Amino acid sequence: MSAQDSNITLLHHLAQEIEALLSTSSDEFNSLISSVNAENPWFIASEIRRALNYWAINLRQSVVRQWLNSYKFDENKVSKKVLLICAGNIPLVGFHDFISVVLSGHHVLLKLSSKDQKLFLFLLKKLEHLDSTFSRNYTLVHKPVKEFDAVIATGSANTSRYFEFYFKDYPKIIRPNKTSISILSSSVSVQELVLLAEDVFNYFGLGCRSITKIYLPQNFDFERLRVAFEDYNQLLHHHKYCNNLDYQRSIHLLNKTQFIDFGHLLLIENEAVFSPMGCLYYEYYQDLNSCIEEIEQHKELQLISSDVSFENTLSLGEAQSPRLDQYADQIDTIEFLTQLQ
Length: 341
Known about the structure:
Elements: H1 3-22, H2 27-39, H3 45-58, H4 61-68, E1 81-85, H5 95-103, E2 107-111, H6 118-130, E3 138-140, E4 150-154, H7 157-166, E5 172-175, E6 179-183, H8 190-201, E7 211-217, H9 222-229, H10 239-254, E8 260-261, E9 266-269, E10 279-285, H11 288-295, E11 301-306, E12 314-315, H12 333-338
Parallel strand pairs: 1-2, 1-4, 2-3, 4-5, 6-7, 6-11, 7-10, 9-10, 11-12
Antiparallel strand pairs: 8-9
């Protein structure tokens, strides 16, 4: 059995462990949730479960093999050291990159975000419990390292510019901060708007795949949107979200900016695509096709979703559940890793 086959089997066993963990209310799981939430208050129990459930599904052997089937791996190729600098905006956001490096036969120099360490380390310990030799695949790093062969790094616009300069002499994937938008037609149903709500509110809208702006037809009925979004009133129980919402409401009241107040979300007409937490920007369009063409020029977009089928768009509700081959920034991570010399 090849090293890759062994790791695929190991990841499948991890998926089973995660699934078992999610099906119980054990002391181990409750302790994990408490410690993760203490490290990052945005990582509440429902979002931790959401992230773990995603990996319980996508680490299954059949899913991973289908993902890797289209690539050619050279088992005799010399393993490289890949420095992986993870973000910490949503739980386990760097785990896809991590397994990509491992399954490509390389060694991970893993620099975790201070905002997402405990959950990541929990999964690594699970993997090592299943196979004590798994620790050979990675090294945790806490300080700047000098010996590495390639870099995968995710950060803000400012840190990404720094990464581009600092790692200019290395093969690299640098991912700046991005966001996502939705285009709604006049025939969008309430059921579809409920799916849109998941893409807006899951992970508190902190992910690059979170919808931060919607494009609307003229005379759009916002009451339908309010009904579809009302289940997320529970966000008002989260003090940090509530503080952000109150701040935004105060600012817009002081500036006499017009907005629609759903109680737990402010809808503001704005041409920008990045909306602050507690807000959702919207903009009207005249023609749907022209709208798509214009939006595709935005380089800061991770994805576009819609209730209408267009090329390179996702259906509403799919933004936060990408397939393993739907890579961030449309940069094929596995292809990059297999080409390292």
